[in-house]
Amino acid sequence: MSPNLGPSLYEVLTQNFSGGLPMQQVSEEDRRVLSVLDNLQRLFNSRAGQLAHLPDYGLPDMSQILQGMPSSAQELLRRLRQVIRKYEPRIMRLDIVLLPQTQPGQLAYSLEAELKGMGQVRFGTLFTAEGKVLVRHLRQQQWLAHNNQEP
């Protein structure tokens, strides 16, 4: 597997994905998906301006986004596209759709992406009122095939 398409250097060095899931327990295809998922999770839970050497890494303050609803949802969508294109090079094509709001103070998006050398994947993204962002890999059965558990 090409180094720029596989797991991140951090994952290779630790031999784990976030949450402590060992790489060797995951198929090669799922490794790539989980690595992208982990990177998106880190990116979305970082706030722009926190890193001096990468001032645009991350998203704006989520409390401001949630207070400005519903007009701020489109601004967040634009920012998501921007940071994903810049900081997740394994994604070739990206489609982000705002999902209906099911709880006040939460935003949900569906991210459909084409991964280089792999094909289509879909992630569900939930922005909570507490400012946390949860990213999940969605397959038709809604779970990863290797262990029927969420990443």
TrEMBL record:
One protein family per Pfam: GPW_gp25
Residue ranges of domain IraD/Gp25-like in the record: 35-116
InterPro entries from the UniProt entry: IraD/Gp25-like, TssE1-like
NCBIfam families named among the record's database cross-references: VI_zyme
Protein name: Type VI secretion system baseplate subunit TssE
Organism of provenance: Rouxiella aceris
Lineage: Bacteria, Pseudomonadati, Pseudomonadota, Gammaproteobacteria, Enterobacterales
Gene: tssE
